[in-house]
Amino acid sequence: MATEQELQSLFNTLDRDQDGKISINELFLSPGLSAVISSETNTNSPQELLVQYDSDEDGSITFEELKKAVEKASNLT
């Protein structure tokens, strides 16, 4: 389980170009962190995360989309 602050820190680390979104490429560039995201959101892969939680369908995950995914998995403390 992650706190919102820990989740924000993880998000910022994955957001390499600092555009406020995590792209599929950024997820694949950090497999270890991507695995943490998968476990916190109860998804099996970055692709599944995007399919389920990319609400604006822009091919990337914003912090709010990630937060919703973690909340839905009941892993946000």
Automatic annotation (TrEMBL):
SUPFAM superfamilies: EF-hand. InterPro entries: EF-hand-dom_pair, EF_Hand_1_Ca_BS, EF_hand_dom. Signal peptide: none annotated. Residues 2-37, 41-76 form the EF-hand domain. This is EF-hand domain-containing protein. It comes from Anabaena subtropica FACHB-260.
